[in-house]
Amino acid sequence: MQTPAVGRHEEIARLRAAVVAAASGAGRFVLVSGTAGIGKSWLAEHVVTLAAEAGLRVARGNALDDAGMPPLWPWRRVARELPELAVALDTVTEPGGGPAAQRFRMFTEVADVLVAAAAPSGLLLVLEDLHWSDPTSLALLTHVATETPRTKVLIVGTAREPMGETLLADQPDWLRLPHFQSLPVPGLSEHEVRYWLEQRGLTPDLAHRVHERTGGTPLLVRLVIDSDTGAGDDPLLSVPGIRRLILAQLDRIDPTDIEILGAASVLGERIDTALLAQVCGSVLPSEPVPVSDPVAKALDAATAAGIVRRFADDTTGFTHALVRDAVYADLTPSRRAACHRAAAEVLSARGGPDSAVAGAIATHWRQASGCADSPSGRHWSRRAARSARASAAYAEAIRFGQWAIDAAGVTASDAERAELLIELARDEFAAGWVATSLDHCVEAGASAEQADRPDLLAEAGLVVQGVTTPTVMTQLDTLCGKALRLLEPDKHPDLIARILAQRALSAADRGAGARARELSDRAMRAAARSTDPDVVLDAIHARHLSLAAVDFLDERMALAARAIEIAADAEQPLAQLWGYVWTADAALQRGDLLAFDNALDHIELLADRRRLPIARWHLLRLRATRAALVGDFPAARVFDAAAHELAVDIGDYSLAGLHHAFRGMYAMIVGHIDRDELTAALASLAFAPKITIAQLFAPMLHAMAGDLEEAKALFAPFRLLPDTLEIGPRWSGTVYSVGIVAEFLDDAETADRVFRAFHGREHHYAADGTGALICVGSIARIRADNARVAGHLDAAVDLYHQGLAMDTDIGARPFVALGHLGLARTLLARGDLTAAREAADRAAAAFRRLDMPYRLRAADALLTDIATATRTADPLTRREREVHDLVATGLTNREIATHLVLSERTVETHVRNILAKLAVTNRTELTRGSR
């Protein structure tokens, strides 16, 4: 029995306005929310009618209250009406990028398909029961909604209140969208309930009582009306009461039909009649039945009783989730378990792609056996996890993976348990659950040792990568060390190469440069025997990172070229990306901007052709670096902001954090950081990796902001670093940062350490080799700055001249200007005032052209200091010096007046001033002093 169209005038008007807006190119996202039975589905049906009248294409999907629902199920239901969407949903299976990048690429493809489908006449996308959606479906919805405000796409979602945690997590993002509209659906008013009663031929005097008992919820209003509006007891006082009220409709149905409806409730809110018939054949008594199709008979009876209905998409289901829930809750535990087991067996026999059936089968086995040992449950949970993983739905993969471990119980072997734990750990790591993943890796390692399976022990040690937290690295090193001792070179050469590469990366990240180079060399030799390109690329990656310093440029260039070649042959776009990023870094260190730009062109091609978000991020990051290097600061800020926005969209907050690092280095170049930016940058350090170069940012920022005492206190632990830090990743950037703070604090002793540390590297440029955050020009200029602070003035002058030539060659205009400024300061300290003034004038002119006002202020202050020093060195004015020099030759005042075209009295005044300033008493002493 359909609920009559009572009230809802405001809701319908708002939905009609959204349809009109979308049809005109102003997309809308409307979330219809309310309690169970409030009429959300009725409004969804109504907006479909409105959209059809306006000529919009319609596509519908819905989530299910079924733990076996496959990831992205609502979107795959939409794909039935938008076939082109199915291809986009499978984009995640294409190679290239990590889990986040793959998911982002798929999300972008889906958004593009929907926008294209809407372009001709508009598109209504209805997604019902979002409160049951999986996290991946909701994340995709958020992405699509963000991309569609100025399109012809109208998104209408329905969700039950109170909303679950998963849906609430996405709502703040939706509320920030300009085209989002929340449409909460209230209960019917008493007046509307009265109208309903009149339509049913009942006395309107009951309106107050019915409204009071139901809160105006249409479903409950109908149930109360259909039961007995004159009953004295209030069925809404307790949950069991509500259930009995709903189940009272079953009183008109045959017991056999009720058994069949019970089996249907196990299958979910929507009913697959063929599946239901097979399940009933397994669980119902095998007695002769008086009809040929008992399932059809039962569904017909349930339809007449208002328990089941036919939906617009030609499917059959319970009239409402509350009805299905009540029927399901009324089953005995044994009957429920039997129905779930039968459903699992029937679905297994029926077959189908895992993406469609594995989750449902795993769920039925889970409900049939609970957490007890269940080989079938383990098998299907593992398959469901694998299917979810293929769709990048890691939250669902984790759930199914945990079910597989539960189903393994105590009967699984140690090797089987280790395999299950490793699969679970991989999904947890992909989802960002590092600590939990590591715990399961350690547990898997213990099971692998018990099983005498060093290969599984190695796999456990290879799950977590790129995490530099000391406790994490220690546990991984322990696992990898055990595996390395047990693996046999003849049986496991590839695993040995990967373990060595992993340990080399770990050593490099913790600053053990020599150890990293030794391990990576062994990894390269082990990988030389492998035919697996992934193994070779892992070894190359480790080797390159261990050599990330200017000392090893030639080998790094060769490694980059080899990575590009292997990756192209093996269809590994992510490895190609790394090869080009490494090439760009090496080109910066050599000052070869043509090679740098060529590498960026290749990265752009990868980003465009492969739709790799991480490639786009590196492209933006490197463009920001280049723009800052040549002094195009507006472009540098734009590229940096775009990189930051993309990192946030991808969900990789380690990349997003580099935005603050770039802004800090940019502030250092321009010579100023404001308080708001200082606060934001210092706050970001709480989330930065605990590595030395990141920790140096705090004293550097404080020193730049003028908080010198705070900077000194924070800097104290790092003053000896240039003498102790091993050559390796981030060595150049770390030592350079120490030098910056030493200059700010006028710390001659530390500056001398930096000056000596960079000895022999003056002919290179300052880039790190690990993915350029920024390039600050020639190392010669950096070394000169530290030589000046340390008091090595002659060496500083020579180095400044070398740096100026190098920075001029590559057009590094800000660093040419900074070189002139440093040279002027050094020449002033040496007393070479004329040359100091010339260098300072050049610096000031360059800062003015580059719009660097804070650096210009420093140059102007230096020019003032030079002028003061000049006056101190020669107290005479220029005219007085001319008169002095002529007096010294023996000319008289009259002769001097004639020579300078002055009056004789003016010359006399100048002579008196000269005698006073030079503390002499007569002209003879002036003549004698000049000889």
Task: Describe the model.
The chain is mainly α and 931 residues long. It contains 48 helices and eight strands. It has a five-stranded parallel sheet with strand order 2-3-4-1-5, with helices on both faces. A hairpin with a 5-residue loop joins strand 7 (308-310) and strand 8. Helix 13 (273-283) packs across helix 16 (333-350) and helix 30 (613-630) runs antiparallel to helix 31 (633-650). The longest helix is centred in the last third of the chain and has 21 residues, at 853-873.
Topology record:
Elements: H1 9-23, E1 28-34, H2 40-53, E2 57-62, H3 73-78, H4 83-89, H5 99-118, E3 123-128, H6 135-147, E4 153-160, H7 165-175, E5 180-184, H8 190-199, H9 207-214, H10 218-227, H11 239-247, H12 255-267, E6 270-271, H13 273-283, H14 294-304, E7 308-310, E8 316-318, H15 321-329, H16 333-350, H17 354-369, H18 375-390, H19 394-408, H20 414-430, H21 434-450, H22 454-461, H23 470-486, H24 493-509, H25 513-527, H26 533-546, H27 553-569, H28 573-590, H29 593-610, H30 613-630, H31 633-650, H32 653-670, H33 675-684, H34 692-695, H35 697-704, H36 708-715, H37 721-724, H38 731-744, H39 748-757, H40 779-790, H41 793-809, H42 813-830, H43 833-850, H44 853-873, H45 878-888, H46 893-900, H47 904-917, H48 923-930
Parallel strand pairs: 1-4, 1-5, 2-3, 3-4
Antiparallel strand pairs: 6-8, 7-8
